[in-house]
Amino acid sequence: MFSLLIGIFVGVSAGYLGSLMVLEKMALVGDALSHVALPGLALGILFNFNPFFGGFAFLFASAVIIWHIQRVTKLSFETLVGAVFTLALAVGILIIPEPELLEALFGSITEVSLLDTTLAVIVSFIAIFLTKTIYNKIVLGMISEELATSTGIKVARINLLYLLLVSLVVAIGIKITGTLLVGFLVVTPAAAAKTISSNLFKYAVLSSIFGAVSASSGVLLSGYLNLPPGPLVVLSGITIFLVAVLVKWASK
Amino acid sequence: MESHNDYILKVSNLSVKLQDQPILDNISFKLKKGTTLAIVGPNGAGKTVFFRTLLNLVPYSGKIEWADKVKIGYVPQSLSVGDIPISVKEFLSFKASSDIENSLSSVGLDSETILDKSLNVLSGGQRQRVLIAWAIIDKPNVLLFDEPTTGVDLDSEEAIYEMLNRLKKGREITILLISHDIHIVRDYSDYMLALNKCVTFFGESKKIMDPDLQRTIYGEPVCIVTPTQ
């Protein structure tokens, strides 16, 4: 029950925040960012503190690095994502104790405590609320940085806030989907929604709904089939994506 | 006698350097309220950077003094929406939630047909008009247009400039306009500021027809072909 609740809340917040990531063509960031959490999780397990905080600390640091690199140059950004973040994944795999490795990579619906659930719900609410206040400003900044700046929007600052909120959502999502696949939730539901949306409101709402359905279906199937939830979240999400593509194709 | 209050903008010794390269050098002029100033010059002269300086988007040395209670509306050269699913209504609502229909009709667009359309399905001319609607929606008294008719067909171009004339008649509005079109400069502006990193000319726009002045501004006289009747 707790894991289903986490699934729904994480799905909604990841879908909603992911809608901006897909527009900004930062899907690669969404995926790689999740890998970076693994060493943080490992430290949490090894030193006996809540892995969420370890994961979030590494995600937070990486988000700041990404933000800074993006401002300086767009070229080295992709090198960073490809090489360094994969390195973080490799290091995490090496230091995490083996019994917990599978769960860290692919998620688990067992051992989900009331604390985990409460944390996920609170973080989701905060992330969604804060993102809503900056959503239009971020989109305007994507359309024209000049127009955005000329209306007083501090584009760099709100982009940093956004990356920090994504880090929070990814950190709570790791419990359910694992570090290898949590990036999926930030990208694919929004990609599906974009295929069939002609305005921002519909796009944001559908991204959230698709995220919630992907995550919760994955969790339910995991309980039913006794398999890790991460891959099942991905399969559910891809199904939704394919249906969206078919709907778009049929409407032409 | 001219009074201090006649001027909406005074620029003194404005210079801009980007990565140690001089982009603008020692620009000085005064602009009266309610006039239209065309900014002309060859490519790379610094015209767009000049606008960005007026909007405080670029660091500069020298002085830019606007009159009190100036509200600027800015129309950039183009808008790159890509595949962002955003409707005209949502885009205009970013700036103001009321007066959307009025600003659309001021630019000759029918709000009933266009409000729910996605920006990326509009034609070049329609998108340009939406950009202008964006700029005027909160009733500015200064408009900055960076080549407002780039990529727009001739009919839409004429329509856009006629619309600017109508806007001016409705209220005392000062327009600064970057343009490469000599006939636009002649027909739609009062004064002309020619830039080529520095000021090469500042005065009445009708003088643009003088071939010697054209040579000073562009390096060569510009030919206008008048269609025979």
Quaternary state reads heterodimer
Sequence stretches where pLDDT stays below 50 over 5 or more residues of chain A: none
Counted beta strands of chain B? 9
Can you identify the CATH superfamily of the largest domain in chain B? P-loop containing nucleotide triphosphate hydrolases
| Helix share bin of chain A | over 70%
Helix run count of chain B: 8
CA(first)-CA(last) distance of chain B? 45 Å
Q: What is the CATH architecture assignment of chain A?
A: Orthogonal Bundle
The fold-level CATH name of chain A is ABC transporter involved in vitamin B12 uptake, BtuC
Q: What percent strand of chain B? A: 25-35%
CATH architecture group name of the largest domain in chain B = 3-Layer(aba) Sandwich
- CATH C-level class of chain A is Mainly Alpha
The total of helices of chain A stands at 11
Task: Summarize the structure in words.
The complex is a heterodimer of chains A (about 250) and B (about 230). Chain A has 11 helices and no strands. Chain A is mostly helical and about 250 residues long. Chain A has one domain: ABC transporter involved in vitamin B12 uptake, BtuC, CATH 1.10.3470. The longest helix of chain A has 30 residues. With about 230 residues, chain B is of the alpha/beta class. Chain B has a 6-stranded mixed beta sheet with strand order 5-6-7-3-8-9, sandwiched between helices. In chain B, helix 3 crosses helix 5. The longest helix of chain B is centred in the last third of the chain and has 17 residues. Chain B is globular and about 50 Å long. At the A-B interface, helix 6, helix 7 and helix 10 of A face helix 2 of B.
Q: What descriptive keywords fit this protein?
A:
heterodimer, A: 252 residues, mainly alpha, ABC transporter involved in vitamin B12 uptake, BtuC, 11 helices, B: 229 residues, alpha/beta, Rossmann fold, 2 domains, six-stranded mixed beta sheet, three-stranded antiparallel beta sheet, 8 helices, 9 strands
